[in-house]
Amino acid sequence: MRPTVFAVVFTLTWLLAPGRAHADGPAPELHLTAGVEIEGTSGITSVSFRGQALVGTHLGKGRLRPSIAAGVVAGTGALFVEDPRAATGAVGLSYTSLGPAVQLGLHLHGGDGHEAAFVFATLANLTTTTDARLMLDAVHGVDPRVTRGVRAALGVNWAHGVSDLVSTAAADPRHSGGLAAVLLFVLPEQLEVTLERDTGSLREGATFSWGF
After folding, report:
1. I want to staple 155 with a disulfide (CB 3.0 to 4.6 A). Which of 3, 115, 177, 192 is the partner?
2. Could you tell me if 81 and 93 are in contact, meaning their C-beta atoms sit under 8 angstroms apart?
3. pTM of the entire structure?
4. Model confidence at 181, in pLDDT bands (50, 70, 90)?
5. Mean pLDDT across the stretch 95-104?
């Protein structure tokens, strides 16, 4: 069993154990995000949808509250690979990934008790599939036989902080930050710096997501 799979099973079992449901500690919390991921390396660029669903909990009641979560990450998009045979100089290949993930984080709370930001690190084991055309016509830099991969990410999420700004603006129309709060709510609420190894390449990039 892969270490990440074991970590996910252990974390979810601990979080959802019947004994914890009646404990005085915080209840399990859900993390749901979806957005756009852009990664690249020499001659290869990937653009994809990236979604994450994790169950976790935080510890403590101070301004800095560590957390642990586990769940799944999924992605679907395309690999754009430089190929002199293509009319545009590059060929687009479909690509999907899915796998278990474990996350360690730190919730940052302000003096008013509201969460200002959440910083985290995520590690996922991926199962990948690539364009079926690769079985008939190979493209340098992409190996369809490689169906396992790893994704590591460092990120920050400010959704709860934005939500507090929006609530404040809604409660007081004269609030000077109302317009900024609305604009922040429309823009992505999570940024991740990523490193992903799969399909025969090691790519680095960023993910821009909405969610909490």
Report:
1. 192
2. yes
3. 0.84
4. low
5. 96
